[in-house]
Design a protein that fits this description.
single chain; 5 strands; alpha/beta; 167 residues; binds adenosine-5'-diphosphate
């Protein structure tokens, strides 16, 4: 649709946390359409398969009409171009995120000067949240209720029981 502004929010989302969700809601208020683009991230040895991560995201963002969930492979800038995205959304939690994100944004700009990266900050309470920490806490038997949406908490429980049975 002409004049429609689309933002692409890429990531591994292994799994989706309340921090990611906070950014999705913020982006959905700024853009006409937000595509959450889930990367396979095989190299990161994800706990959840790509399909599982997508299904969880879809379930949680179902209620937001202008948010879609998709998978992407290959270069992010090519995906953005193909979907006529105006901007890439990335999150900044702390100074420690900055160096990598800065490098990534400038590299993407080099690859395609039309692709703009927009950084958003989550609600303060989510600045210490990461998928990696959430997985660690769940693995150690901690309660992740305040950190992830309920369907993600349930999926984490199921996944960890599955792994335990296999051992
Ligand atoms: P990636 O593997 O691309 O880093 P992630 O799923 O870990 O994928 O993160 C995707 C994006 O979301 C990154 O820009 C990251 O900084 C951001 N992000 C992750 N957790 C949070 C959070 N708690 N608050 C805000 N942004 C976050």
């Amino acid at each position: 649709m002409p004049g429609m502004r689309t933002a692409i929010y890429p990531g591994s989302f292994d799994p989706l946390t309340n921090g990611h969700l906070d950014l999705i809601y913020r982006a959905a208020r700024l853009f006409d359409r937000v595509i959450v683009a889930v990367a396979a991230s095989e190299g990161k040895n994800p706990l959840f398969s790509l399909d599982e991560r997508i299904a969880l995201l879809r379930r949680v963002v179902m209620t937001v009409p202008n948010v879609e969930v998709d998978s992407f492979t290959g270069l992010l800038v090519d995906y953005v171009e193909k979907h006529q995205g105006e901007a890439v959304i990335r999150g900044l939690r702390a100074v420690s995120d900055f160096e990598f994100e800065f490098q990534l944004a400038l590299m993407n700009r080099k690859l395609n000067p039309r692709v703009e990266t927009i950084f958003m900050m989550p609600k303060e309470a989510y600045t210490f949240l990461s998928s990696r920490l959430v997985k660690e806490i769940a693995q150690l038997g901690g309660d992740v209720s305040g950190f992830v949406p309920a369907p993600v908490k349930a999926a984490l429980g199921r996944k960890l029981r599955q792994i335990k049975r296999r051992k």
